[in-house]
């Protein structure tokens, strides 16, 4: 999977994080991404208002199964797209039809303003490089999440 995406280095942002998103959150998989990811990730279904999405990661109080005891991702080069773009979250505004990009306040680096404009631009470029259908994005938008976000941009 690594060759499919531009690589973004999160080391400076995430290295000192004690909260670790992989201990607390799940990542929603793109359509058919469950066929490409390492088996250790064990995808599960999440019900939304518009159907199901597949996800991996933290569930039932347990961290992502790919997280090492030291807090590192053991499948980093093969991690799902949602993991690659976090803390960027893109939802569909059903009233306007726009895609809305947010930064997730669940990430300490976002709360502490340590996400650079350059990093945000790289994340947006990566997101836009993937063909995400509005149908899938609608289901993604309605997957249960804490929704503590800062809006950064919109587009059609």
TrEMBL record:
The organism's place on the tree of life at top rank: Archaea
Pfam families in alphabetical order: CxxCxxCC
InterPro entries: Puta_zinc/iron-chelating_dom
Protein name according to UniProt: Zinc/iron-chelating domain-containing protein
């Amino acid at each position: 999977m690594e060759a499919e995406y531009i690589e973004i280095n999160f080391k400076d942002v995430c290295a000192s994080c004690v909260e670790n998103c992989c201990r607390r959150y799940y990542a929603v998989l793109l359509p058919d991404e469950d066929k490409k990811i390492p088996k250790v990730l064990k995808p599960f279904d999440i019900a939304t208002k518009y159907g199901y999405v597949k996800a991996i990661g933290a569930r039932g109080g347990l961290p992502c199964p790919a997280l090492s005891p030291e807090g590192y991702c053991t499948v980093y080069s093969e991690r799902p797209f949602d993991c690659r773009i976090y803390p960027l979250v893109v939802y569909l505004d059903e009233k306007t039809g726009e895609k809305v990009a947010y930064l997730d306040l669940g990430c300490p680096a976002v709360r502490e303003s340590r996400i650079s404009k350059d990093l945000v631009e790289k994340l947006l470029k990566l997101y836009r490089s993937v063909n995400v259908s509005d149908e899938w994005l609608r289901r993604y938008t309605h997957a249960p999440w804490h929704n503590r976000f800062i809006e950064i941009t919109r587009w059609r």
